[in-house]
Amino acid sequence: MDKDKELVKKEIENLVKEIQRHNILYYEFANPSISDYDYDLLVNRLKQLMAEHPDLAEAAQSIQRVGSDLTPDSKTIPHKQRMYSLDNAYSLTEVEEFLNKIAKEIGRYPEVTLEHKIDGFSINLFYDNGILQYATTRGDGFEGEVVTSNVKTIKSIPERIDYEGSIEIRGEIYFPLDVFQTINKDRENNGEKLFANPRNAAAGTIKLKDRNLVAERGLQAVMYAVGYASAPIAEKQNELLVRLQQLGFPVSQDYALASSFSALAEYCNYWDVKRSDLPYEIDGIVIKMNNFALQANLGYTNKSPKWAIAYKFKPEEKETILKEVQFQVGRTGAVTPVAILEPVYISGSTVSRATLHNADEIKRLDLHLGDTVKIVKSGEIIPKIISVNPDKRKESAPIVQFTKFCPACQSPLFKEEEGAIFYCSNSKCPAQLQRQIEHFTSRDAMDITGLGESLIARMIKIGMLKSVEDIYRLDYRKIAELERFGDKSAANLQAAIEKSKTENFDRVLYALGIRFVGTKTARILTEHLGNIDNMIKADFETLNSIPEIGKKIAHSVIDYFQVSDNLALIEYLRKQGLQFAVAQKSVSAKLQGKTFLITGTLPHFDRKDMESLILANGGKLLSSVSKNLNFLIVGENAGSKLDKAKALGSVNIINEDQILSMMGMNS
């Protein structure tokens, strides 16, 4: 391979990695680090290279798949009809080319519907004989994550409709701007990381475990499509919107029909200017063929419908002055720089702060205090600095330096090897408390039912929780006196906290929140080292020699145990009776050498209990379907893992009774 070809191959590989990273940030964490426009620039560059060098395109095929918002190990349900994503256009010229291509194919200019592209989170509602059966996210397009309980808190979504048969109703869940800004203000007051935009807030809220908090936040919905339907309810998109409204669904009132490009352009240009007057955030206009028969004839690509496109508004840009840079610490200890700006009006609101992401971003921009900076606000309440005007810089302007100490507790910061984020390693840091307690009490950790996000926040606010240790010091009489609480709720919480003391060592280790130590890594570490004392004493060579424990995890574990407050936390929890050693119990070898994965809901066993049984009998758990998987245990509402296992052909598909039989247990 010649030198030029090598360079192209390297660029393709880098683009694939970067796009996959942004897909994970956007779909799985609802925390994008770049705008849609910048993301599409990366994708379009990759497509260009693939077209020019088809022999190098194989490595890039994965980015053709629709992204996934599925949470690992969440309950999923397959969509009855696939949910696609839309292709984007960033100019009316691109839109015109899209429509001209269709006009040439069908012999006439198509009639289209024009609808606001609300900055929200896609949802799928399934009704059977008029009753809402479940609500799912878009997921990976083929299956979605079940969020029925939370969706039922949205008052505008009917639980009963006048429709016989089965039907999927689809739309967007979103936050009105005033509600979104209130949420961010509360998060700022509580020292929490702000949501970048309404879509992130909606995505984060719809998956919360605390249903009461979901209800309090005030999500709204707008519906605009049907997936599967046992009987059609309309022949055109505009007729569908009318019918959805008749059924009781919220529908946008600002849609329009257009039969010419000039009418389409007029509508798009109007809302590009007037979008700041809307009570919700839109980032463009969705253009669809109005006739469903035409939609069916045009069909789909492997990612998007050929009969629709999203025209994305260009981000508004403004210049202003950088006054100072402040540093904020998040719940995980990540320290984020924030630019304090001369107030400037942009995209419908006056802003005075902008995210700077990390130290590398400050260096890239070559920021000096007093700089004239250009900011952009593309669907984001907190703008981003995209460039500096060096011609307007004063000679004496000091360079912006990243802080060396935590702004909340003044502890020294550290940065992971090859990482971009600086962290505070002090487990007692007050700014990390809420997130730390949420993690500690989560289902995969200490599984303290009843101690959810909103209650934790209330307890921190009134001083009941000042550290993780305080979970085991709670005064349940005072808890019973809290609003919306009582003796029974307090007793249930006490029982859950007492039960947490019996959780296995690997779950306790995961609960500590050591960076890069997830559930699987915690299990590996505890199996190899046996108890917490061995772990504290372990050096880099010992840790790095453990299978699947690399340099990054080894350094993180060592760094954690170097902090005296972390050691004090462990000692306190040990005195409270938490398990810091692997339980010495007889382990069967009946499943030795076999690998397992569970999908769906089992009839009699919780997933984590079945996993514990498998491990106790010598089996090994995998996180995904692959050629290394021996057995897939299938329960009710099995997801795409079952389809993948069937396609692979080498996986044994069994049920709960069969795995119990393999372990010599009665079903």
Give a brief description.
The chain has 667 residues and is α+β, with helices and mostly antiparallel strands.
Helices, strands, pairings?
Blueprint: H1 3-28, H2 36-52, E1 76-78, E2 88-89, H3 92-106, E3 112-118, E4 121-128, E5 131-137, E6 143-145, H4 148-151, E7 166-174, H5 177-189, H6 198-206, H7 211-217, E8 220-229, H8 237-246, E9 256-258, H9 261-274, E10 282-289, H10 292-298, E11 308-312, E12 316-329, E13 334-346, E14 349-355, H11 359-365, E15 372-377, E16 384-388, E17 413-415, E18 422-424, H12 433-441, H13 453-461, H14 476-480, H15 487-500, H16 505-511, H17 519-529, H18 532-537, H19 540-544, H20 551-561, H21 564-575, E19 595-599, H22 607-616, E20 620-621, E21 631-634, H23 640-648, E22 652-654, H24 656-662
Parallel strand pairs: 2-11, 19-20, 19-21, 21-22
Antiparallel strand pairs: 1-6, 3-9, 3-10, 4-5, 4-7, 7-8, 10-11, 12-13, 12-15, 13-14, 13-18, 15-16, 17-18
Helix pairs in contact: 1-2, 12-13, 16-17
> And the CATH topology of the largest domain?
D-amino Acid Aminotransferase, Chain A, domain 1
Provide a count of the helices: 24
CATH second-level architecture of the largest domain: 2-Layer Sandwich
Give the termini distance in whole angstroms: 60 Å
Please compute the radius of gyration using only Cα atoms. Answer: 27 Å
How many extended strands?
Answer: 22
* Unreliable parts: none
The CATH C-level name of the largest domain is Alpha Beta
CATH superfamily of the largest domain: DNA ligase/mRNA capping enzyme
Structural class: alpha+beta
Overall pLDDT level: 86
The profile of the biggest β sheet is: 7 strands, antiparallel
Sum up the overall morphology in one term: globular
| Helix proportion range | 25-40%
Proportion of residues in extended strands: 15-25%
Tally of discrete structural domains: 5
